[in-house]
Amino acid sequence: MVSPILVIALTLFLAFSIPLLHMLSKKLPPFVPPLATLINLWILITNIKHVGEGAMLITTAGLKPPIAINLAIDKFSLLFAILIQVIGFLLSIYYLSQERKDMRFYMLFLLNILGASGIVMTGDLFNSFVFLEILEISSFGLVASGKDKKALEGGFKYMMIGAIGSSLYLLGIIVLYLSTGTLNMAHIAKLMPSIPDSVKLFSSILFLIGIGVEVELFPLNAWAPDAYQGAMDEISTQLSSIISKTGIYLAARIFLTIYGGLYATNIIFYLAITTFIVAELAALMQKNVKRMLAYSSVGQMGLLMLILSVFAKRGDVFVLTTAILLALNHAFGKGLLFLSLGSLTGNTRNYDIEDLKGAGRANPVLGFLFATGVLSIIGMPIFFGFWSKISLLISIMKANLMYLLALLLLVFLVELYYYANVIVNLFKGEGKKYRIGVIPVSVMLLFALSLIVFGLWPHPVFKIAQNAAASLMERSMYISSILGGM
Amino acid sequence: MSILYFFLYLLLVTVIGLLYMGVARKVTAHIQNRYGPPIYQPILDVLKLFGKRHTVTHGVMHSLGPVIAYTGIASTLLFLPLGNHTPLLHFKGDLFVVLYLLVVGPLGMALGAGESSNPNATIAMARALSLMLGYEIIFFMATLPVFYHYHTASIYKVIQAQGVFPHWGAIIFPISFLAALFALQGMMGEKPFEIAIAPHEIASGPMVEYGGKYLGLLQLWHAVGIIVETGLLVDIFFGPQNIIWFFIGTFIVFYVVILVNAVMPRFRIEQAVRFYWGIPLLLAILGILQVYIWR
Amino acid sequence: MAMFLLLLIIGLTGLLAFILGPIKVLRNIISLIGAIGGLLYFVFKIRPGQAYALNIKIYNVHFGTGMSALSIFFGIILLGLFLIFLIASFHEDNDGAYYMFSFFSLLGALGVLFAKDLISFFFFFETMSLFSFLIVLKGNGETSHRSAFKYVMWSAFGAYAFLLGTFLKVNYTHSVMITDISYLGGNIKLWILILLLTPFMVKTALMPFHLWAPGAYTDSKDTYTVFLSGGLSKIGVFGYFIALFNVFSQIAVLYPWLLKVFAYIGAITASLAGIYAFMQDDAKKLLAYSSISQLGYVAVGFGVYSHFSVVAALFHALGHAVFESLLFLVVAGVYYRTKTHDLRKMGGLIKKMPLSFIGLLFGIIATSGIPPTIGFPSKWLLYEAIILKNDLFLVSLVFFASITAFLYSYKLIHSIFLGKLHKEHEHIKEAPFGYGFGIVVLLIPLFVLGTNPGIVVKPIDYIVRFYLKPDLAYNLTNMTTPLGHVNFPAIGITMTLLFTLSFIIYLIFGKSYRAAQEDNYTATEWIDKDFGLHYGGEFYGFMRKAFGKPLTWSFEKILNACLKVVSFLGEIARGFYMGDARVYLFYIILFFAIIVYIMGGKL
User: Fold this and answer.
1) Is the complex ipTM more than 0.85?
2) Considering only residues 102 to 161 of chain C, which have any Cβ-Cβ distance to chain A shorter than 8 Å?
3) What is the pLDDT of residue C172?
4) Mean pLDDT, to the nearest integer, of C48-70?
């Protein structure tokens, strides 16, 4: 067993060794991120069998919680950590084929992975704020690293709103700290019944806004379309597959584990529905495919939050499993979409739907990849998305929300409308043929194959998701495994 | 034996039909203050046509068209009881068989006429088929109440169920009978529904490229067609008649038709179809409502 | 297990065909072997009453033919038509993906037939829709993208309605299997039934849901249309049966009005689509509407809901598979040679393509329902069933629809095959083997079942007898309803005899000689040798005047109005993201204020 703390330490170390390596040879920096993520992945995989019921505790400085900073990894964290490393690894491989960027870009990339891994592994609330800051600041940088003005604009908006969000998040932490005197998540969770209701409420509102920015909830998500649109395609992938998923993790961890249920469930419930509907409707009118995908991403995040709030209304492990399936589908599907869209436009950054005409027909492989992403996102059978969508509907049915189910199906029709429009556009007429390297294609093929293979045989994924969901649900187990019978 | 009976039967009906055509010409002539040809003139015409040594054809289908047309109408005849007289096959098919076999004739003719590639013929067939949208549906709706009333689709059973004079379909269902008369006028292609033939406008329409034996066959088709179409009306509305009265009945109906034909101008095709969708349709609907109310 | 293996065979063949895509010969052989193997496997291994469950954790997938023996009936139709499509499609220029998609769409259709629970049903239904959508998308028509888009949207509309119905059913009955819901209280069962029926109404293109069909049928590749129209639409018919008998067995008692509405919708569809059909100038579009019209009869048969009306509906579904496929196949063959579907650009092809002509001739005779072809028995049964149900207006409407069939049938055959040959078609040949093979094969059931309907009426009767009181007496060649009786071969024999007689008359009198095509009566007008006398477009143009304004009414306008509303909502949603960072900040502050205001009472 290798201590998971190495994930953080090593990533940090490698990130800051990039300038040194750069001095050694200008060719070296691009190879650091794949190395780092691969090692991380290996470390996490060796830990799989050690994470049993409850959370695995990794202490620092030899002190036991609730005093010291510690990592608390349960199956839920582990799943997200692995997801982050896998996507990170694939993306960093993808970068190898791109023209070499400034070495600072690779540093930002690694810091971003670091922040995300830290958030999903930490057991300390303040620590999670620190990692969140790392994540956000590196993301601002990444988003703004694009070549044109749009990237800068998107990065700026993201930064403004993200900063407000994270400061409110910090405020929430402070409020909780004042009333409990501890920062350890498990400890706070344990003390939760003793906190006065008004404090709970106020802090949860602060958290809601702080995390709401990250998970792109309705009125707080205004940055998202601009940031997604402005960023480079790989960065958009990162935003949708890693960064927003980290937000979901945080939401689940804070609201479900710490508060033991969503506070103001109804507010989140309705906000999530609104997010979903508004985003899908906005996407419907888009002529810019990338912005359309951005709205769709926002919509999917709304769906995820919706399912979390449904879980809060009706604690069923199946509902949480659904949330994880949805997150996985979105991470792979949307990631694939952003990547293949970039290639389909020949990296011209011209995403107008009219200009994409025939691109799929001219580049059948890319067309296939993009179509796979779309079909999985809209939940067509034989793709993984089908199962996540079906289990989403099953969980909503189980919660007895039949009107919501009808509404969702209606909005899915809207979603299908604009996606089908893009697909149809890709395959009509004659388009331009682009040369594309082996590496990007194989990275995208990995995304696509995982969607198809697990679409045909969802059993293993479902099992993993179920385990993760179960460990998230067992709140008392989490508390007792960290604090040890305290 | 029965085969021989078949042929004689067919021959007899064909000859009677040809005589009807002769009467029609005579009557029309008298109305128009002419003498007109003798009644047996159509028979002579047909014999002459078949006697022609050379005939022009435009292709295989052009030749086969009249053959199919005659096949269709002759088959229909064999399924249609003539009043009390029943041909061999009447029990092997009912109203719907007759209605569908009736279409084979026009279809064969249409195929032949179409092959000639004369636009006159094509226009005529388009019109003839379009007119079916008018009269066929009216005829069908007008006969429905009778079949419905006697709860059978067999023409023979309907005839037997009607009984003698006051129990005729025409007396019980006068509205439907009227609608059927309207439909018959179009079915027989007489004025004001003579749109498909229209000699002055499109040169006899489908017949324009036909001569000799083809025209002869078409004349035979027309002759049998008169008996079948009027006979269908007589069967459904005039109850069980012996064969003499049956032909008298068909003659009366036919007489009415040619009287109307003699004094009417011609509709345009869309006018004709619209006409059928007006009053006749209303009458047919009223007839159906009548049988509903009676039940 | 047999069913699972069959699906595996079909799926793997599709995959192999894709992998071997570039090697044409090998690919064709593999797909042929797969299709024939699938058919044989189906015929010999699949039996009624088999069941198989596959556990994939999220829920159990239940397979089985136990649902009804109808699965087998439709399965054979599907696989047979697929084979015919496949053989003809080898003449087209297709890639491996095309074959993969078509095999997968077949797989989906077969899966639907086997599914015993609603979610597997949905899974396979979606699979079928998805891959047939991709094929329509691959069509080479200029509007194929538009048609494919419409197709997928309508399919999804139906599928989502089905899904909603499924979940409502599961919610109320706690069973995902296809089981009876008629015992449920309240009106919820009605909603479930309607929702479950929707995708099948879409698949069979019943009238308000038909908007996708003309486009998809026209723009899919010619040979695939044979399968799309003849084969995949049968899934809709199968679905009617499942919905009306297995899911809601008491419909005749509880909601007779719904059946009546259904029957009338079917009859109106048949009539209106017939009218639209004879107004078309594109051969495939004409056939598309004809297909819609013919499937309307099937809906009528189900709506009448008596023993032999359902028998008639299922028989007609089979008949539709035979004659509509035949017509599409002939048109495909003609396209292969002439490269056009435009009725205005063809004519006189009878001299060049006699076999295709014969196929089309008997195809239209069957479409019109003229005996002794396969089209007649079902129509005859249907008429009598409706009269027995005391609905004379419905039967009139259906009769009207069948008159329109004469009109469009004649237009089709006239414009393509009769009249004067176009100059550019002077050197074309008969359609190649693949098309001819299909035509010959389809002509066999067309006549055999037209004269001996008992062959299929017997199995159908056994299926329907289980649900409805039988009132039809039949043997191989005769059928007797309470109203009437028909001896089918008698009609055929009479017609053959009389045709021989007329033919002898034709032969013994006079000699005929062949006149040149342009040697016509033209009222002394001199016409050039190349002057196009033949005309096919606007054939029934004058009927526009007869119908007047109602002909211009269309469901599409209503749909467009709905779309406008959605776009308006979309504009509003888009307006929210106006792109000004200051406004975004304002959103957050406002949001914070509102939340605090709402929750303030509790603070």
Assistant:
1) yes
2) 104, 108, 119, 123-124, 126-127, 130, 137-138, 144-146, 148-149, 152-153, 156-157, 160-161
3) 85
4) 61
